[in-house]
Every structure is written in C-alpha cells, then in structure tokens.
C-alpha cells in the first residue's frame, strides 16, 4: 500500500484524513496523492474562462495546504497534489486508476456552506464504485494508532485470499492484533467460522482471536464490540450480496460509516 489517494475539500475533517494518511505513509514509506475536484456551472467569460479561474484558485489553495503539511512527512514519505474538474466520485475513481493507487483514505463528512460540494456521502459512493480498499476516517478523529483491528463478517464465504490481502498487509506492517468477529441477526444462523476463511488467514501467517455475536442491530452490536475491545479500526467486506451491502443504504450504515468512532476499512469482497 505504497500509494495513498486522499480526496480533499479543504474542510477540517478532510484535513484530519490527510493528517492520518501522512502518518500512515510515514510508517510505510509511501506517497500521499492529494486530490481536489471541482465542478463549474458557468460558461466562458469575456477574456478568460471560469474554469481557468477556478482551477488556478483551487491549485493555490491546495498548494498552501501541501506547504502546511509537508513538515509532517518523514524522510521516506512523499506527497503530490492534483486538481481535477469533474464529479467527485467519478474523478476520484478515475484518478485512483491512473495514479496506480493502492488505498484511498478519506473523510466521511464535508464542510458546510460554499464548500459543501465534495464530501457528504461521497465516501459511501466511492466505496460502492471502486475495487480499491477505502479507509474512511470519522469526523473529529485525531489519533493515529493501529494496534487492534476488528474484522467483522457475516456468514458469507470469503472465496479468495486476495480479498484479505490489504488487511493482512496492514496487520503485518503495523504489527496489529486481529479480532475476527462473526455477526448475525438470526440466532439460529450458523456462526461457525468458515473453514476456507481460516485457511486464508493461516496461509498469511496471521493469528487472530475469534468472536461470535448475535445482535438485533448489527451496527450497534459492532460498535459496542469495538468499544469493548478498544479496536483502533473496523474492517468490513463489501460483498455484492450480504448484510453490509444491505445495510449500506439504510440508517444503520450511516451510523457505521459516518458516526463510527474509529476508522472504517472497507475491502471489496
């Protein structure tokens, strides 16, 4: 995970996500690619187009931001900046492809007023439209620590070990402990860990502690678990079918993705 894409709208929460990404990059010797997108509705002016004015203005604002955070970089980490015109989600996903990004780190809440044009639900839409791992940093989250990760799963099978590779890489890089949490709403459902999943994890040489949870509210149950276990990060798989996909469009998903007290690491299942 050497190349990190960080979308920004220059809001406080986006800045927090950027700070998190920089500390992440410092640990792995990575490159932080900061991206700002904009959309212009007006046409060309008499001498110079509105797009040119906006582009130059945003480049200046991004230059100032990069200048402020550069001193935070370790010697083995670097930072790049990009300003692109276009819809936020489409531009983020396209930039991730063109820049060969390994992980997207972004805030989950945007700014208010004139700058409320970028984030909002952008994080959820990026998660649904990219195959890359996305690390969503909750609002007002300031601490950087990755020592205890909870991987919350339903009873769907994990068909390929490659799905878990970004999580395994993170665990090995930061030396974290792993809680494997199986969550179901139906008390009669099978809550045994999938044999294939065990084989995948063991093949990577990672140990874990296994927990079972039956909860009337999956989101609330997960939140209570990560609080009890002092987890620094919650990891979930975004299946085409499964409880995460189902609840992602419901209010409980808003709680998980946007009110979580710890970063949410989403892998494409």
Strand order of the largest sheet: 3-2-1-4-5-10-9-6-7-8
What is the CATH topology descriptor of the largest domain? Answer: Rossmann fold
* Tally of helical segments: 9
SS elements, strand count: 10
Mean pLDDT: 81
Helix percentage range = 25-40%
| Main sheet overview | 10 strands, mixed
> Unreliable runs, pLDDT <50, ≥5 residues?
110-120, 247-255
Distance N terminus to C terminus?
Answer: 18 Å
Order of helices and strands, N to C? Answer: EHEHEHEHEEHEHEHEHHE
| Quaternary status | single chain
CATH superfamily of the largest domain: HUPs
CATH class annotation of the largest domain? Alpha Beta
Q: What coarse outline follows from CA principal-axis ratios?
A: elongated
**How large is the radius of gyration?**
19 Å
| Integer tally of domains | 2
Task: Write the CATH architecture name of the largest domain.
Answer: 3-Layer(aba) Sandwich
Classify the secondary structure makeup into a structural class.
alpha/beta
- Which percent band covers the strand fraction? 15-25%
Task: Walk me through what this model shows.
This protein has 269 residues and is α/β, with parallel strands linked by helices. Helices cover 37% and strands 23% of the residues. It contains 9 helices and 10 strands. The chain has a 10-stranded mixed sheet with strand order 3-2-1-4-5-10-9-6-7-8, sandwiched between helices.
């Amino acid at each position: 995970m050497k190349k990190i894409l960080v979308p920004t709208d220059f809001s406080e929460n986006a800045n927090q996500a950027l700070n998190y990404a920089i500390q992440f990059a410092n640990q792995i010797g990575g490159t932080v690619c900061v991206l700002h997108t904009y959309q212009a509705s007006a046409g060309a002016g008499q001498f110079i187009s509105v797009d040119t004015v906006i582009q130059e203005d945003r480049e200046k604002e991004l230059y100032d931001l990069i200048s402020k955070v550069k001193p935070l970089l370790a010697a083995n980490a670097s930072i790049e900046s990009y300003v692109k015109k276009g819809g936020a989600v489409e531009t983020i996903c396209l930039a991730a492809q063109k820049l060969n990004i390994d992980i997207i780190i972004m805030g989950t809440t945007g700014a208010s007023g004139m700058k409320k044009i970028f984030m909002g639900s952008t994080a959820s839409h990026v998660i649904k439209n990219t195959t890359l791992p996305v690390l969503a940093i909750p609002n007002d989250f300031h601490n950087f620590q990755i020592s205890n990760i909870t991987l919350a799963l339903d009873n769907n099978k994990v068909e390929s070990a490659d799905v878990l590779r970004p999580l395994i890489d993170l665990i090995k890089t930061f030396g974290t402990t792993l809680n494997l949490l199986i969550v179901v709403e139906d008390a009669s459902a099978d809550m045994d860990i999938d044999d294939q999943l065990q084989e995948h994890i063991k093949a990577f040489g990672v140990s874990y502690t296994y927990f079972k949870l039956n909860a009337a509210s999956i989101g609330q149950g997960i939140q209570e678990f990560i609080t009890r276990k002092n987890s620094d990060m919650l990891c979930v798989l975004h299946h085409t079918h499964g409880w995460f996909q189902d609840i992602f469009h419901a209010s409980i998903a808003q709680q998980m993705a946007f009110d979580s007290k710890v970063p949410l690491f989403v892998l494409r299942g």
